[in-house]
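Today's session is about reading a structure prediction critically. Students often jump straight to the picture, but the first step is always the sequence itself: look for stretches that repeat, for charged clusters, for runs of hydrophobic residues. Only then move on to the predicted structure, which in these notes is written as discrete structure tokens rather than atom positions. Here is the chain we will use throughout the hour.
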Amino acid sequence: MTELNPDTLARESLQRHRLVATGLLVLMAVLTLFSYRMPHTWTTELLQSAAKAGFVGGIADWFAITALFRHPLGIPIPHTAIIPNQRERLGRALGRFVANHVFTSQEVANVLGRLDLPGIVHRFLADPEAARPAAIGLAGMLPKLLSSVEDGRARRIVRRMVPHVLGGPAAGHVIARALHNLVDSGRHQEVFGFILAQMKATLAGRESALRYAIEERVREQGGRLVGWALGASIARRVLSLVNAELDKMSPDGSELREAFDEWIRREIQRMETDPARAAEIGSAIRRVVAHETIQVWLWDLWGRLRLALEEDLGRPSSRTVAYIEAALANLGTILENDPVARARLQTAVEKVVATVLPDAQARLAEFIAQVVANWDTETIVDRLELRIGRDLQYIRMNGTIVGFLIGGLLFALLDSLFGYTSF
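Below is the predicted structure for this chain, in token form.
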């Protein structure tokens, strides 16, 4: 079964109502003429007065409504065909009305509040069929994003910005929070153990070179005889003591590890509570990151990361896609269980919308004005008549009927007050 076009249904309804309104007008004209053929009585005069008033009311409303869309009877009477002649001004007025009275910040905030954006995001991320394509899309954007940063101008901007961002006033607090998480999970001891293991491996691998360097130093300070007699013994003793101290640090619960734990916790507290210490950390980071050697190393690391990412994205089972998908799923879980996270997301979206809303309002008003201005006369008249034409025909009907009733009532009132009255 073919579904009818909404415009076709609206056009048929408009035609029916137009016929009814015109029929009432014709009826008033027929009653007026017929009253002149009837015997001259009070009832005849009442009918005649009412029919005349109804006919005049119907004609006046027909003229007013027709003048909105076209020239009545094709006669170019001034101030008729208002909508076609004033469509640019009407378009601008309509655009401003929608932007300033419909698309307002309060209305948008109310809509966002009713939408429950955190719930929508959670349901989207909880659906694997939706989250997987989203993860693939985000992963596919990463190489292009990384490549764009390597552009010459972008690279210079990043080179200037990174030291300031990483070494800003909040850098100490950021490092403190990161260290806090590291210490709370006990991972700082793993890092400490890794550093000790690397130091021991380095000493073991370069023991011969270190022994020779110590012997040479003893020979320089004590002379050839002392160096020949005691150099080797002193070198062995020094290396043995160093290894012994490193061994003392290795076991869990050792005094040195406890001292390290106490020291790092004290430093974290200082960075969190002492602005001068936090600024000092930030300044040190800024100097390190701004160093030319570090810059070269960072860009080399950046290039390797980009190449590794592109290579990984080319695999069917990409780790990057899997990681992003897991991160999205984790975000969905957080939004489901953490009211604070839900509130933060809702607030963040509302702030973003509030920031871009003024520009969006201006663009919306401009867009509506441009669309209306580009409509041809026939199109704008046809569309508006289809939307409001039926209601306008009710105005014609009401004008005819009300005119008929008021005309009869006025005749009866005047006749009762002043006697015979002729219209």
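Discussion point for the tutorial: The radius of gyration is 44 Å.
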